[in-house]
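Moderator note: this is an archived Q&A kept for reference. The question asked for a predicted structure of one protein chain; the sequence and the answer are reproduced below.
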Amino acid sequence: MRKKKSIKILPLVLFILIFLFVYNFEDIIGGTLFKSGFKTLQWDELKKIPIDLQKGLENSTLIFTDNSNIIVSANNQLKLYDKDGDIIVSKKINSHSSKVIGLKDYFAVIDLIQGDIVIMDFKANKFGEIMDLGNLKDVISIRNNIIVITGENRLQIFNEKGTLLSDVELPDGEILSLDLSKKENKIIITILSSDSENYNSKIITYSLDSNSMVGADNHYDSIIYSTNVYETSVMIVDSEGSHSYLITDTDNNIWNVKREGRLEHLTVDDNGNIFEIVYREKINNDKGQKYNYFLIGVNKDGGNIFEIGLDKKYDSISILKGRILLSNDKEAIIYSYGGKIISNYQDKRKMKSIKWLTYNRLLVEYNDYMKVFELVY
C-alpha cells in the first residue's frame, strides 16, 4: 500500500508571506512611516483630461465631482468620467445648464432661467425631472432632496424622482443659508431682510410634517454664515463666533465660542464639527513664529479640536472623511482631524480649483484641462 505524500504547509505559507511582503514592501514601509508621522502622502498624477470650454460669455464650463465621478457640462454636452479619469459617457442635453448639484445616489442638471431640473444616474440616464418652474433664485441638494428657491420666494422640496414634498412661503429677503435635519422633518432658513431701513437676519425653523414654523429669531444682530438644524437644537456660525441653542429657546445658548479674528472661510461636516480659516493681526505663538492666518476646529459640543498657525493665505477649505483640504491657486495642504499635515502640493501652473474625488483622489482644474491625482505613500 502506497503512502500518501504529505504537503508541507508551513514552508508554503512562509513563502507566500515573504512574497507578499517583498511585493508590497514599498507600501508597507511607506504606510508605517506615514502613520508614524515621518512621511507625508505624495500627489501622483493619474490622468490629464482636456476641458471643452463653454462658447460665449454668458456661461462657463461647469465641473462637478460627486460619488467619485467627474461631471462636465458645456455647450449642451454632458460628459461623465470615473475616478480614474476615464470617460463613462458623453451625451447631448437640451438645456443650457447653469448649475449641477449632487444627490446621495444621483445628480441633477439645472437651468435656472427656465426652471428645468433633470435628475440623472451616473451613466447619464434620466431618473426624474422637474420642469417649467420659471426663474429660480437657487437650487441646492441635501442628501437625496432637491431644495428650490423660486423667483416668487417660495421654498419647495422635491425628492430624487421630482415629486414635490413640501412648499413653504418665505418672508422677503435674501437667503443666506439653509439646512435640513437628518430625519428630514425640519428645515432652518436664514434670511437677510430690511425692516424699517435696518438690515437684520431672520432665522426661521419650519416643521415639514406640519408645514408650520416651530422656531424663530427675527432680530439677529450678527452676520450669519452658516446654520445647521438638529432634532431639538440649532447651531449657528456668525461674525462673532459659533454657538448652539434649542429651537424653542433662542435666548439661552447651550454653548458659545467667541472667535478671535476675522472669519475668512468655513466648512461644517456631517457630524457638526466646524472648521474655519481665521485672519488675525500678527501674534507670537509659543515657538516665536508669527502667523496671520489660523485653521481652527470646534466640535459639535463647542469644544476645541485644534488651532493651527498657517504660514500663508488659503482661498478655500473642504473636508472628506476626516481630512481637511486647504488650497490657493499655487498650493494645497491636507490636515488630519488630529491637526497633523498629511500631504502638501505645489504647482507652477495656476490651479482654478481642487475637489475631492475619493478619500485618496483629487481633481485639480486648470484653465483648459484637469488632472486626477492619487495620494500615495
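Archived answer notes: Helices lie at 9-23, 25-35.
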